[in-house]
């Protein structure tokens, strides 16, 4: 009876109904949330993990760790996407049961995340019972509200992308292997074939205007801006209803359509619901209660970290599904660029895919995390190069940060860390700082706010760049002030000046060590350990100039092995 009334109102004026949904979604943001919610995409398990998967996970993990430094509770979800025709075919080729095939590859992702120090709070597999329940309920809601209907569908279908494309989204090309003409997706380059079949469709076209309004009124919801512009361009073209099922005769490996076992739910509808599953979906049946409970369960995501190749699914399909279900919309979709090798897209067939496990073994975990975030792109693709890994490690970490700590903490320097608390307060409050110290003081005093603004915007690479620049300035400051000469003097003023020079130099290392914790958790901890920074003084508040160095801090000056041994 209620569903029938809704359908009648929708037929008479769909905009009124959808506007009502959006108003309720906006009201959900008023409820208090327990935690910040960050997600990676769930990774497709038709093959082993590669460096692109790792990049998404490292970005999300760094965002989580940064917010924890701000004393926020953070949920980080990740996992594996395990249904669809590609999985079914890959399992058949491997002569394995699909679930066993998925388990084998899912464990590889878990292993990679463990080695890479990805601090996720939930790892979801779409083959889990809790997810079947969530997807089935979500489907029922969309169907009961009249947003899913059964019909005939024809179009260009890509098995690789698990997606249909319109005529304007495909083009003819020559297959390099066979020399024959084939049709491919302009977006992904994957081959498409003309397909006609009966399936269920979602009324995506109804949500075109609402999606455009949502994006235009919340301009930072899709980042970077180039991705936002791409999405708006898609939405301003013809938007057709979306096929959301496949015949069971063609696709058996997936969640059956509730009430119609002859059809399997489209893998992308299935996959996107994972972001609700990890937060305890399904919730209450009442829309108002559901919105409140969703917020109290940390839904929707504050930040979805995704690759640019799946932006359409996350910035068009997912919010449309949520609008239809009466649920609040994501607050931010961070769509990063891809990795190339020798300026060519990574491809197993070309043999230019970077293996994360080999990279860890060769360079270490934190150097790889650092390189990926330092050189990876949000707007533009990053080029994966082992020579650049060597360069950035030896230049930034060994040559700058490690060298700075080693030089300052050498026994002959006689750094008196117990004095630094008082020195820090005096230098912070003193308006008559020595002209020799003015530039370094200004740089360090501005660093917390400058890097914080960039990290808040998820511009991690730019934030790291500012940290590295400050370390470089500190090294130059150290050399210009020649503390090794001051260390040899018996003059009291020279001794006092020595401690000031060492304070500024090590203050740069201390602040940098705090800021690099989200990027290099283990190596940053080593830096802070070397400086005897207590665990209670490693939060973001202590990244302020002069905010650290507990009085009575023990001295740890030594000539021990370097923090960042040079790579050869």
UniProtKB/TrEMBL annotation:
Entries under InterPro entries matching the protein: Anticodon_Met, Met-tRNA_synth, Met-tRNA_synth_2, Methionyl/Leucyl_tRNA_Synth, MetRS_core, Rossmann-like_a/b/a_fold, tRNAsynth_Ia_anticodon-bd
Keywords of this entry: Aminoacyl-tRNA synthetase, ATP-binding, Ligase, Nucleotide-binding, Protein biosynthesis
Location of the Methionyl/Leucyl tRNA synthetase domain: 37-409
CDD domains for this protein: Anticodon_Ia_Met, MetRS_core
GO MF terms, alphabetically ordered: ATP binding; methionine-tRNA ligase activity
EC class: ligase
Protein name listed in UniProt: Probable methionine--tRNA ligase, mitochondrial
Species of the source: Mycoemilia scoparia
